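Risk register update: the risk that structure generation would not scale has been downgraded. Supporting records follow, first protein first.
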Amino acid sequence: MRRMLWAALLLPVLTYAQTKPITLEDIFKKNTFRGEQVAGFEEERTNDLFKESDIKDESGRRLTFSDFTASQDKKHVLFSTENEPIYRRSSKATVYIYDATTRKTSRLTNGKVLHASFSPDGSKVAYVLNNNLYLYDVHTAQTRAITKDGKWNFVINGNADWVYEEEFGFSQAYQWSPNGAYLAFYKFDESRVKEYNFTVFDDRYNKDYRYKYPKAGDSNSTVSIHIYDVAKGKTVSAQFPKGDIYIPRIKWTQSENKLVVFWMNRLQNNLRLLLTDAATGKASTLYEEKNKWYVDINDDWQFLKDGRHLLYGSEKNGWYRLYLQSMDGKQSVELTRQAADVTEIVGVDEKAGLVYYTVAYPTPLDRNLFVTDLEGKHTTQLTSGPGWHRVEMNAGFTQFIDRYSTLNMPETVTRFNLRKVGDIVTATEAKKLADNARLNATAAAYGFTNFQLIRVPNRYGDTLNGMLLRPSNFDASKKYPVLFYTYGGPGDQQAVNRFGAASANRNLWLRMLAQRGFFVVCIDNTGTGSRGEAFKKKTYLQLGKYEIEDQIDAAKWMRQQANVDPKNIGHWGWSFGGFMSSLAITKGADVFTAAVAVAPVTSWRYYDNIYTERFLRTPQENPKGYDENSPINFVDKIRGKYLLIHGTADDNVHFQNSTQMVTALVKANVNFETMYYPNKNHGIRGEGDNTTLHLYAKMTNWILQNLGNENVDRTPVGNSINEQKGF
């Protein structure tokens, strides 16, 4: 059966004659493979409010702005200039405010600020400066400080600390109430959090950068929530159980004086929604959920405009489904019941009593649009078949834009009309907006071959989903090396039926390697997403165990195929994927002969506590879970080639992970190679300084030389000077 499956995969498929080689410049500089860009309903900008020539700084010079936001009444606009990135989701900028009536521009305040935003009525602007929260009055141009105790590495107001930003996915840590009467904000007391430092190499003596980063098992910030009454200028504190806890979200209800504080214990297996009075800070429990593993936090919590219902998503019945609960807690309805995960709430049409959402259906690799009434009685599938539907609704829920692709078909964009008659909702095609004909022609010119979806068994009887790309020069009489690519972390999904799967640029890079003569394989191991809660959370307390076993099983499956060179099977990954690659070359040393690990976690003891403890609990509680699957403890098993790459200014997965790995490798007398990029963060990117191109050239040439065989084109990539030097 295994050989029959393999033979089927190698039958002739839609393949274009290769006429042009894919180059790194095509991928990372020229945008050769960029598809058509079609604006959605929400992408219509309000640039009719101003003329760019009117936007000037204090000296009268025309401003070059990176972004702008209009007030809801369209009378004022905020412009951001000189943006300065901080961490993954945060940046600060010089901000100007423009009056659309007088056509005058003025600076909001001295210094670069974070999160400048209008109040709902447009009369105020809130912003964060030097860890304090401020309020600017648009009409009087007066500013008042809401907080005064902000201090770097001690207290933060209105902005998230590092670990909340990274793991709970937000940076702006304040929210306006629906009408702007109140401003609710976070205060992070970082006093107990340990500092992490790294060197910034920028002059003769360099600089030391220090920030608060709580590693697994260590103390977090003490978080409090405060509610500021704009009219009275007074602040009250939200009341909730204190201790070693998290507040992963705050959200206003439709009521002006009701804030919901999301409370979670440190183990992240108990979530409570606390309905909080804005005037007093007193709270009562609106919703509670407990889980034997952990509860994932997301933004699928919507307080409906009727003021009486909460729509939310949960895995509490084994699949991620949608629920509707009354605000008094007396009624709850399970709206969706498919044995498949809901992946996105696209929109809620309250007037018609309908919720639109996408589901990982008919397989976990696909996405299709469904609609269900808010009583959970009638469900209709609006798109169909295999493939990936990315959907955007218009404001009136009369149309939607469908961006549809498959693994080997670029995105087509179509606008559909919606018709609602009683309980029946139908969708009919209105207009084809784009078919990506140019990208299809480019793919033909560059000889793109088809990815193939595969299913591979593991040792426990599960079947793993994956993608396979065969060598462009495939000859059934020859054997070719294999490169595995994965991320593999909890809830992630790389093998999907979508064009550009595994991220667009990396997908193209993998195609380039296939052109050179490699099999490229991506396997979604145990713990990845869209297959239900049990499959995702099976890795609990043993992060890395089942994941690397699955990668090893898939590599053994590949090794048995007729056209695979069993002596040349490699693994490449970044971040969690780098952790997997490092496990592949250590625990998987009997099958993997080479590995490239970029910015890898080498011990979860070095990573932050919110992410790590969600899956492993603390090192004090679960030391075996941390150590028995840490590649740093198994370097003595390495027999193949290993390349370790890291940015020295990685604020996320610290460079420390690689230095400690190097220490262990040296101690075990293991030969390896390493590459570091000074002052680069977790993304190790840069176009102006050539970093991105250099990184991918380094990895490509290393893979060609250390994994390629006689059937691979091993000509070095890069510029002519590097090629002459054997770059």
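Supporting record for the second protein:
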Amino acid sequence: MKKKLVSILIAGFLAFGLYSQQFSQISNINPSPLPYPIYNLNNFYELNNKLVFTNSLNSWTTRLYISDGTLNGTNGIYSWGSPTHMIIPNEIKFCGYPEQSFIKLSNQLYFKLRNNQSGLEFLWKTSGDSIGTTLVKDLGTRKFCSNLIELNGNLFFMTTDYDPVWGNITKELWKTDGTQNGTVVINNWVNSSNFSNDVKIVKYYNKIYFSGFESDGSSIGTIQTGLVLPPEKESCMYNGFIYYKGIDGKIWKSDGTLNGTSQAVDFPVTGNLYVFNGYIYFSGGFSGAGQSGSELCKTDGTLVNTIILKDIYVGFNSSNPGNFISLNNYLFFIASDGIHGNELWKTDGTSLGTSMVKDIYSSSSGFEGAFYSCSTSYRTHQSIHNNELYFSIHTAWIGNQNGVWKTDGSEVNTILVQPSDTVGLILDVNCKLFTVLDSMRYNQFGEYVQDNSELWCFIDSCSSVGVTQKEDYKAYSVFPNPTNDYITIQSEEILYKRFEIVDQFGRMILESTIDSSDAKIDLKSLLPGIYFLHLEGEPEAFKIIKN
């Protein structure tokens, strides 16, 4: 009875237009419903102001697509060359870490594929069209065991090779410049106990780190240090240090060396860390009798300035704030106060300025899946578009406030803009806001009829472009580091940015503007020491060591 009533109410909403629909369906690539319709369009990434994504036709077949935001401009990408290497049904499946199926290098996207018939794996690249989609390297019997990561104009990854005769297992570190001859092994380890089945490579301070090793990209510069640093999505850069949750559950920091890694604050952390307006925000606090549980906290890296900003779920319970994203001098997050359930909150950095934006779902359980936590899922369910935050909501009841919402931080302007039972990824690409929705059909009785998921898009005139993928604002490299006389700021496109170099005390030493994709900055006049490079509009600083 309740489900039927909900359906009737939804039909009424649609009839009277009580929501502001903004999206239009721009693809029809899944005409027949699948058992799990929302998960077949995935892996959103921007390439040359277009959206590249994947579509899983079933559990073993995946195809590559590109879209400019129009129906005619949404097409499959096929490779040019041998038919046995084409991305075709019943043959190819994307493999590897879901949070990084693509990585950009020189205006091309690189990705890993597995042939399900042969079991062999390949490194591919695409420029967004069929001719520009080519095989980089056939890895033969080797298996990918890591993500792809960029360092100084090359990509690095790990593979596992098994010798069926002798039973040896070899881990190999590869480097590629995008050519077949330039895709080579730079280090290997036979039957090493240092590596698990899956290896996570991360980049900090112009080096890569994995399984207790660090590397500058060369064979001789790949050494075992014992330092294991967390992925970027589970850490933050603050005042020239990497801050993260340590194995003891407390706040740790590192300068990228084993000796420079230590506990920063003896204070519990339960979630990821996020830098906002000069502080690190996180979910944390002491639990137990007389304690507040896991609440909204902030720190400047010292114990004296580490506080529980607000006890949202008053008492011994936890509000578990998370899924942080900042907009218009506010930090937005999801939390539960024990009365309204999981809802959208915001803070200006003060206790009085921390409040619930809107009681969207009137239930003590709140809504589910509004933002997917980076610690549990690497899908993007939120995006800044035209100076507003767009996010998805899913509840247990079909159509009960489900769909794409937007907010400017005020209750009155927190509204449903596109109803849908299920919502997939959301990403702004050059003022085009893409998402994955079902087609939201209702029959003549006002009952919801489930269709398969498709690509939808909203295009308007933007005052700003929101980007949610961390890789996008780190699409440049700074090297050499350490340096004796100069540094180079290298980007995949021309940068027009003001930069500042400050010392450890925050004093500005040098400022100017760069206007190229390969800019050199003369540092010969600087005294030896540690400095920080700030690029205009970028949320993180580069630590520079001057010899």
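The radius of gyration is 24 Å. On this basis the risk owner (M.S.) recommends closing the item.
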